[in-house]
């Protein structure tokens, strides 16, 4: 080894010597020539060097453009492709009724794609395995699906968690399971018009799913949630675990609690449905409200839809027309007018009023529905008989301007501030028109010429029942924690609308309407009940009333000695001969009140069976 | 025991006898390799993990190749250039045969080009390995241009043209262009008449245009490079992803290892587009430092060429300077969309054994030239003193 190396070194130095001599020799011989070549050579070398330097300069400028000038723009574009919205993976809060029954919840479902090309087993065997798990699917149908395409066959979009896990357990290659949350409404159509539904993007589209998005979506403003919303993923689509915030699973356990009572809601909907069928009516709505708080105990519109399969229904059903549509209340508005008159001091409960068969206002003849009149009667009798002329004579005692101001104070043309979406205002004619002639206050006296939503009417009657306070109707009680304690209660305004004494007097009169007048159909043994019928002609939208179309309603207060609930039933366009508020709507209200009494355990006002004997 | 002198990469007991340029170039080569390894670690980790469940997969292999490369580097710096030049034609021809092998179908098809050839278990890219010998042969021919008979000059020019044609046929436009430009710039530095250089340049341009006309994929790339956003999901995808990576870097970068674009958005992120990942992680400042390092390397090489009086050795240094610096700049130009997208590795950064070996040998040659120039100078001075 040493020898070889030594030899190499010797060889190396020898080579060097030879080479050096050569070049030295060459140098000596052409010293002058070399100098001139050298200066040219230096110029050429500098050219080569400069080419490199200048191109680096250009590249630095290019990098300046890309990283400094366009840096933010490019960075944003890159982030766009690197992140994606994680929202469908955060479950929405559940919704429960006033008794804690779950009425809306997020369930894990799987969207399953099969890539038949990648299947390791025979398609027929796979189809059979899948059909065993997806019990409602046929194996031949699945096999047909598998034969339809090579990749990306959609097996199902809402396969349950259990079934999905079983399919995962098969350990088959070529099956993609996408886990997500889907909204599920265990009560189906029972609460459809209140809860609404969420679309495929998990965003609320109707009902409280739409209006209460803020409460239903878990708080997305926290840092953890914000980072959750934009999770990083790599070019192959996989989520980058490090980009997930810590404590992902530590979602709060809050639920949205409604004021509704499922049991009363069910009784209400059943009663309404049956009556609509009986009278072949276009539509109907029933509202039950707590008069002191404005809490809605039941709210049913018919026909309705099933939010679990919302796409199968007409989209017009998604709205809750008790909130979104206004109508002319007719006679059900008369007690409100009486309260105004009492407030203004133009009458007292015992005042005498002329109930004539008809009267002429500004040249327009106006008659009672019965075409008869009882002459001079007290105010209670006016309501009992639902006299139009009597009401006109009462309201004429107030100046047109004052009456208009009082109607405005009712808030007919303002929103109530509901927690249900798409609330509509009622309609009150402009002040100039209303105060110009007597006819306007005259028709308003019996509840025509103005409009309001059914729920607004309930709110006004609740004010009569609770001693004059205008409460805000609502279906959301608040957010409750796992122990059922309310953590967030919406603040709802109330204001005094009528004098307490006026309100009390009107309630007494309404009790008399049920005991002795047009509301007799709503009598319940053992309970003092107030009520008022309404049968109004429908407007065709061009200022004319339609001959055959009417809207019947009945509003009741239960019980009048200690008012707790207002119940309103509105039935739109019932068909048949004997269709009035007392015959169509009142029986529904009675059935609903029976359910309330039974389910809420309202004690009787007097021993059951006593009243009938007392009656003359 | 003396054998270690030739094989231990970092062992250099006679370093105090080295010139300043040689010592600086030596350390700068090591620094460049180190930066390359660091950049490769980040750029290749995710790919390695995805492909072979081992994030260190490419790093380990690159480390192995760097070790081999450093031994070659060491051997080259220890051997007299005279000796190397004597055997270089035979190496050149051997590698040319390998390139010919890839052209006639013995190569491995990777991404639509046959640039690789398998020798036993090892895949090599002969067109990469040719670079040092191209420099050596170019220097030999152009350095003695005036004294050589046309028979020899013509033969070698023919061999060069044939080599370029073979590489172009693989197809590998970028290496062809780089090799052609290197030879041309060496000829320029050698002092060949400008008129001949101009004529050759025109010919080269024409060949390039012809190649583009024949290979539609090259034309597509050139079109997509002009406005990559037009077809950001198709032809422009690679460049768009590269621009997104570089742009994301901003002023100071997203930080080492934090590149998002390397996570399978940017293809070839550990080979031809490693600079884009480097620029994303270290930003404008990091990119400038890298370019400055390359430029410093080039300027040191330039100083070596200025001091060297021997025409062949000077051209060797020129060739090394052009290939190492020029290729780095071309790679950055491709990454930043300043030139059409082509597959050209960044010396010492991109993953690839052949590229690392070739770059190490080139660096060794440059340092050898610096050493011999210094030895000659001191020899002359000593002679004058005695």
Question: Brief description of this entry?
Answer:
The complex is a heterodimer of chains A (616) and B (386). With 616 residues, chain A is an alpha+beta fold.
Number of domains of chain A: 3
CATH topology of the largest domain in chain A: Beta-lactamase
Named at the architecture level, the CATH assignment of the largest domain in chain A is 3-Layer(aba) Sandwich
Strand order of the largest sheet of chain B: 1-2-3
Q: What low-confidence regions of chain A span 5 or more consecutive residues with pLDDT below 50? A: 1-6, 8-37
Residue share in helix of chain A: 40-55%
Give the biggest sheet of chain B. Answer: 3 strands, antiparallel
Look at the structure and give the mean pLDDT of chain B: 89
- CATH class annotation of the largest domain in chain A: Alpha Beta
Number of β-strand runs of chain B: 3
List keywords for this structure.
heterodimer; A: alpha+beta; Beta-lactamase; 7-stranded mixed beta sheet; 5-stranded antiparallel beta sheet; 19% strand; B: 386 residues; mainly alpha; 13 helices
Can you lay out the helices and strands and say which pair or pack?
The complex is a heterodimer of chains A (616) and B (386).
Chain A: H1 2-29, H2 31-69, H3 71-82, E1 83-85, E2 95-96, E3 102-114, H4 123-133, H5 139-148, E4 153-160, H6 161-169, E5 175-184, H7 192-195, H8 207-211, H9 213-216, H10 223-229, E6 230-232, E7 255-258, H11 262-278, E8 283-290, E9 296-302, H12 321-324, H13 334-344, E10 352-355, E11 358-361, E12 364-367, E13 375-378, H14 379-385, H15 388-395, H16 400-409, H17 431-436, H18 439-445, H19 454-465, E14 469-470, E15 476-480, E16 486-488, E17 495-496, H20 500-516, E18 530-539, E19 545-558, E20 565-572, H21 581-600, H22 610-614
Parallel strand pairs in A: 2-7
Antiparallel strand pairs in A: 1-6, 2-3, 3-4, 3-5, 7-15, 8-9, 8-20, 10-13, 11-12, 14-17, 15-16, 18-19, 19-20
Chain B: H1 3-7, H2 20-52, H3 57-78, H4 81-103, E1 108-110, E2 113-119, E3 122-124, H5 126-143, H6 150-169, H7 173-190, H8 194-214, H9 216-226, H10 237-249, H11 274-307, H12 311-335, H13 353-385
Antiparallel strand pairs in B: 1-2, 2-3
Helix pairs in contact in B: 2-3, 2-11, 2-13, 3-13, 4-5, 4-6, 5-6, 5-7, 5-12, 5-13, 6-7, 7-8, 7-12, 8-9, 10-11, 11-12, 11-13, 12-13
């Amino acid at each position: 080894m040493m020898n070889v190396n030594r030899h190499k070194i010797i060889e190396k130095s020898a080579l060097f010597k030879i080479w050096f001599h050569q070049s030295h020799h060459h140098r000596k011989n052409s010293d002058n020539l070399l100098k001139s070549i050298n200066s040219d050579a230096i110029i050429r070398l500098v050219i080569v060097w400069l080419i490199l330097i200048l191109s680096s300069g250009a590249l630095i400028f290019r990098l300046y453009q890309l990283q400094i000038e366009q840096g933010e723009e490019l960075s944003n574009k890159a982030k766009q492709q690197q992140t994606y919205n994680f929202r469908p993976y955060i479950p929405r809060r559940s919704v429960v009724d006033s008794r804690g029954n779950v009425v809306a919840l997020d369930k894990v479902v799987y969207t399953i794609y099969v890539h038949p090309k990648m299947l390791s087993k025979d398609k027929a065997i796979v189809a059979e395995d899948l059909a065993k798990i997806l019990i409602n699917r046929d194996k031949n149908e699945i096999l047909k699906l598998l034969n339809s395409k090579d990749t990306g066959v959609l097996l199902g979009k809402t396969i349950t968690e259990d079934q999905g896990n079983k399919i995962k357990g098969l350990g088959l290659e070529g099956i993609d399971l996408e886990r997500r949350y889907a909204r599920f409404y265990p009560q189906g159509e029972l609460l459809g018009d209140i809860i609404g539904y969420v679309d495929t993007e998990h965003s609320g589209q109707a009902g409280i799913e739409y209006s209460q998005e803020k409460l239903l979506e878990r708080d997305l403003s926290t840092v953890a949630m914000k980072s959750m919303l934009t999770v990083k993923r790599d070019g192959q689509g996989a989520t980058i675990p490090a980009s997930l915030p810590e404590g992902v699973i530590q979602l709060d356990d809050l639920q949205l609690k409604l004021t509704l009572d499922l049991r009363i809601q069910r009784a209400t909907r059943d009663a309404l449905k049956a009556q609509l069928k009986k009278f072949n009516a276009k539509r109907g709505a029933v509202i039950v409200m707590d008069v002191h708080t404005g809490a809605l105990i039941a709210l049913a519109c018919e026909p309705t839809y099933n939010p679990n399969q919302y796409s199968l229904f007409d989209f017009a059903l998604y709205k809750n027309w008790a909130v979104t549509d206004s109508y002319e209340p007719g006679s059900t508005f008369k007690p409100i007018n009486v309260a105004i008159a009492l407030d203004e001091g133009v009458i007292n409960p015992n005042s005498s009023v002329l109930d004539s068969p008809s009267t002429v206002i500004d040249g327009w003849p106006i008659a009672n529905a019965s075409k008869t009149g009882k002459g001079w009667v007290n105010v209670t009798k006016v309501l009992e008989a639902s006299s139009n002329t009597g009401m006109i004579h009462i309201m004429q005692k107030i100046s047109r301007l004052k009456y208009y101001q009082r109607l405005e104070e009712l808030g007919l043309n303002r929103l109530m501030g509901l927690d249900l979406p798409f609330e509509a205002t009622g309609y009150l004619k402009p002040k100039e028109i209303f105060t110009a002639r007597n006819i306007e206050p005259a028709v308003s006296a019996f509840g025509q010429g103005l409009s309001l939503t059914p729920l607004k009417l309930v709110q006004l009657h609740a004010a009569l029942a609770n001693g004059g306070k205008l409460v805000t109707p609502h279906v959301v009680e608040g957010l409750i924690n796992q122990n059922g304690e309310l953590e967030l209660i919406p603040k709802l305004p109330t204001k005094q609308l009528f004098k307490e004494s006026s309100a009390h007097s009107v309630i007494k009169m309404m009790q008399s309407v049920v005991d002795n007048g047009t509301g007799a159909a709503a009598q319940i043994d053992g309970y003092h009940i107030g009520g008022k019928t309404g049968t109004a002609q429908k407007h065709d939208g061009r200022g004319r009333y339609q001959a055959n179309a009417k809207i019947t309603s009945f509003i009741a207060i239960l019980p009048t000695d200690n008012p707790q609930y207002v119940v309103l039933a509105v039935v739109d366009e019932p068909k048949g001969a004997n269709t009035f508020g007392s015959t169509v709507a009142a029986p529904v209200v009675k059935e609903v009140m029976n359910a309330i009494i039974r389910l809420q355990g309202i004690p009787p006002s007097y021993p059951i069976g006593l009243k009938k004997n007392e009656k003359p | 025991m003396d054998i270690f002198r030739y094989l231990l990469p970092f062992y250099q007991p006679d370093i105090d006898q080295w010139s300043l340029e040689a010592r600086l170039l030596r350390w700068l080569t090591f620094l460049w390799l180190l930066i390359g390894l660091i950049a490769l670690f980040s750029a290749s980790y995710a790919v390695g993990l995805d492909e072979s469940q081992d994030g260190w997969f490419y790093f380990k292999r690159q480390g192995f190749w760097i070790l081999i490369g450093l031994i070659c580097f060491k051997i080259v710096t220890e051997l007299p250039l005279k000796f190397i030049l004597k055997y270089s034609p035979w190496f050149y021809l051997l590698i040319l045969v390998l390139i010919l092998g890839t052209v006639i179908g013995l190569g491995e098809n990777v991404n639509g080009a046959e640039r690789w050839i398998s020798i036993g278990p090892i895949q090599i890219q002969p067109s990469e390995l040719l670079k040092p010998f191209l420099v050596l042969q170019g220097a030999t021919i152009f350095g003695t241009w005036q004294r050589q008979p046309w028979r020899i000059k013509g033969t070698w020019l023919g061999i060069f043209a044939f080599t370029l044609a073979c590489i172009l046929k693989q197809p590998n436009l970028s290496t062809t262009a780089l090799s052609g430009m290197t030879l041309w710039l060496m000829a320029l530095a050698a002092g060949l008449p400008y008129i001949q250089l101009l004529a050759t340049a025109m010919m080269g341009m024409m060949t390039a245009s012809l190649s583009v006309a024949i290979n539609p994929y090259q034309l597509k790339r050139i079109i997509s490079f002009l406005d990559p956003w037009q077809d950001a999901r198709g032809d422009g995808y690679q460049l768009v992803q590269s621009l997104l990576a570089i742009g994301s870097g901003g002023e100071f970068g997203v930080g080492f290892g934090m590149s998002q674009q390397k996570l399978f958005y940017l293809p070839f992120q550990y080979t031809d587009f490693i600079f884009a990942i480097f620029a994303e992680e270290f930003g404008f400042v990091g990119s400038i430092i890298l370019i400055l390092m390359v430029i410093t390397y080039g300027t040191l090489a330039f100083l070596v060429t200025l001091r060297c009086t021997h025409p062949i050795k000077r051209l060797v240094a020129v060739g090394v300077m052009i290939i190492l610096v020029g290729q780095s700049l071309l790679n950055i130009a491709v990454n930043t969309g300043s030139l059409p997208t082509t597959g050209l590795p960044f010396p010492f950064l991109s993953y690839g054994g052949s590229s690392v070996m070739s770059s190490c040998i080139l660096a060794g040659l440059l340092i050898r030239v610096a050493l011999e120039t210094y030895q000659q100078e001191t020899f002359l001075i000593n002679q004058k003193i005695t």
